[in-house]
Write a structure and sequence with these properties.
115 residues; mainly alpha; 2 domains; two-stranded parallel sheet; 5 helices; 2 strands
């Protein structure tokens, strides 16, 4: 598993080493990669569009791509601590209140509908 590809810039030597790793694993076993950068940006990430194209060719050949959109899972639980002007730019939203199941607290089941 390779996490956060593109979070930090990759040196040209690093890009070549990563290509060698991907090439060695190609069609031999599974790889899981995460990135917050789109495929179109990989030439910039690796500093070489040719290396990026060769990487993507091998990575995407048998891939299942899952695109996750929305708020950061890491920051959601602390969203109330982030100032509103930062929150609106970063798409950070507080998590929704958990839904209650079963009988409501206090009263009888005929007093309140179960949620």
């Amino acid at each position: 598993m390779v996490d956060e590809i593109g979070y930090l810039p990759v040196t040209s030597g690093g890009g070549n080493l990563f290509f060698q790793l991907v090439n060695a694993r190609y069609e031999k076993g599974a790889m899981i990669l995460t990135s917050n950068r789109g495929f179109a940006e990989w030439g910039e990430v690796f500093g070489d569009p040719v290396v990026a194209t060769a990487l993507l060719d091998r990575l995407l050949h048998h891939a299942v791509v899952i695109q996750i959109e929305g708020s950061s899972y890491r920051l959601r639980q602390h969203a109330e601590l982030v100032p509103e002007h930062v929150r609106s730019k970063a798409l950070i939203t507080p998590p929704p209140a958990p839904k209650r199941r079963g009988r409501p607290l206090g009263g009888t089941s005929t007093d309140h509908p179960a949620g």
